[in-house]
Design a protein that fits this description.
87% helix
Length: 62
């Protein structure tokens, strides 16, 4: 999917969030969209959370 079309769809989703529930709907849609982007990048291999997990587990061992 082209990035322009993806951006358009995200904008439409945010607009529906505002129309349906005001700012709270907008915020929920924006937060869930950001979480979806992070999960997608992890699944695609573009974002590696191993460093964060490794740092957290090494702190607990001390």
């Amino acid at each position: 999917m082209q990035m322009t079309i993806l951006g358009l769809l995200c904008g439409i989703a945010l607009a529906f969030g505002i129309l349906i529930d005001g700012f709270a709907g907008f915020a929920i849609v924006a937060i869930l969209g950001a979480v979806g982007i992070l999960v997608g990048r992890v699944l695609d291999g573009q974002l590696d959370l191993g460093g964060l997990v490794g740092q957290a587990s090494s702190r607990q061992r001390r």
